[in-house]
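the two lines:
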Amino acid sequence: MIIQICVGSSCHLKGSPEIVELLQKAVEEHHLENDITLTGSFCIGKCNRLGVTVQVDDDIHVGVTKENFKEFFSQHVLSKLGKV
Amino acid sequence: MGIRKFDTKVQHLKYKVLREVARHAWNDTLLDNVMNIPEMIVPGKTPTMRCCVYKERAILGKRVKIAMGGNKENPNVIEVIDIACDECPAAGYEVTTSCRGCLAHRCEDVCKRGAISFDHNHVAHIDKSKCVECGLCAKVCPYAAIINRKRPCQIACKVKAISIKDNNAAAIDNNKCIQCGACVYQCPFGAITDKSYILDVIDIIKKSENNQKYRVYAMVAPSISSQFVYAKLGQVITGLKELGFYTVIEAALGADMVAQAESKELAEKGFLTSSCCPAFVQYIDSAFPDMKPFVSHNLSPMAMLAKYIKSTDKNAKVVFIGPCTAKKAEAKLESVKPYIDAVMTFEELQALFDSKDMDITTLSEDVLENASYYGRIFARSGGLTDAVKQGLEEQNIDFELKAVSCDGIEECRVALLKKSKNVLDANFIEGMACVGGCIGGAGCLTHGEKNKAEVDKYGREALEKTISNAVAVLK
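prediction for all of em together
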């Protein structure tokens, strides 16, 4: 699974550095190093005021924040990998 | 628009040509109209710049050609327009009529070559066969009666790449030229100019079909903070997207990456010269080849970040926008070519905005937030050294930095000369070919006292305060 985090200007201001860190931690916690490749992107083309844009394989998720991160990770990453 | 966008009228003329070439290129009407552009810029019969409108138009024809990429046979991005060269006097040091025929004869005493003699009126004369153009006589004359009749281009060219051809026009020695553009900015007749690749930029944008075929990234140099001062930086970003760029990224993030890598490399090797300024790197190549092993092996911030962008997006094309003519040459290097698709200057960006009749002051403000304070201050002399110092600290590398920040190619020469004789008391040379750093670049719209302060202010506004925080998102 490839997870691409938007680190462009707009998402940077919405906290992409924190989301990158949270993702790195979550991958480690769940021992998913072999299942997930984390990578950056400078714009996924969905700039908005809600939060950070994260692309999981072909699915684009907008508005990821540190508050809703747990929910995002279990719903869109763990469940997809069949780990829940 | 009544707003003063440029320092000189030469820049303004060059801009008008670029703007008209771009206007036709967007509309696919360039081929049909290329011959009409000179007359469009100089209409009527009254000359405003030269002896007659026909000469003005002939020169403009050459400018149009250079705006379209210039002479493909000449690899140098800096070109002389022979017919525009006014063949300024180039006699070197000369005694003027201000010489009062005094008793002191300081000029004679100071001349180590014995080149000064006096006629029966006690007026000084310089023997050109003995004079080495050191200028000491001019310095000591209490009446400032001795002047240096050197061409402005030759004075600007500190690497001595400009000579005078048989036809009295200036000629550039490509083996010495570092493509910094100092002569371009200094020639009062605009007879030396940098080739433009705006047609490539327009072509890349158009063929992307609204970024559907591939995505066109604009990478802007941090010196942009001192440019387009009549508008907000955020409006420039919106303007770039309106032109058709997919997104805009700070080259300063590449500078953060370089600061991190270069500080490590420095500690490993013990001595290093910087790799960001392509004119400085080229200077070492041509004038100090023995020093080549000391040049940092890192790519420049521009190339480093473009390489990263292309690793995250296989469908990316990257256009670098900066103050620099030498970057146009750097982009042609085999090591950089795969990452950079085109380079243009701030002057050329202004022409592109106006070719679309875009008034950026009316646009909404977008954001630009990729780099740290340290990456952003690369734009001015001394910034790179501060960043390398910070890079060493952040990575807990135990290495005592002794840096020399060379502001302009003359200071670079002195430091390199000392190093080659093993008398340089430093382990890092920050080399910036332009005085002031990138903010002094030939492709800037304006050059001013406040530019350094503007860069520092922009640096302080960065969300990320440290290099490691800025590059953390790139893992």
